[in-house]
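Before the break, one more example. Copy the sequence into your notebook; we will annotate it together after we see the structure.
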Amino acid sequence: MSLNKVMLIGNAGKDPEVRYIDTESGSAKAKVAVFSLATTERYRDRAGIAREHTEWHKIIAWNSLADFIEKYVRKGALLYVEGQIRTREWTDRADVTRTETQIAAETVRMLGRREENTVTDNAADRRQSMVSQEQAAGEAADSAEDDGLPF
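Here is what the structure looks like once it is written out:
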């Protein structure tokens, strides 16, 4: 029995890069999203000095999960990522063998406040809400004047 599972909570280090690649069968293209995720550990050393260590993870997601990431994930977004550790090995143009560790995402969830993680600009909605509140306050004041009460 074995288990390959990783759960991370961190901030997106950059906007995701999304592209299409040919599948092995060659008949279709697969959508892939790649971005970095920073997880930071904060601690005090033996001398009591505050320290921090940031670990960077390369996150890769496919197809419908890549669609979600393309729409919603932006640099700095607080994310929960669940997936598997994958190690990839290849030979570069200079004939040097390279190795890279990635997280193959199975689940990506937005964390934090909604305002921080919303793709659209909600400033217009906030302005409209403020106008509606001012109108309601004005209407309440008008109705108070109509009831004949001195206050």
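The CA atoms of residues 7 and 43 lie 20 Å apart. The helical segments are 63-72, 123-146. Try to locate both features in your own notes.
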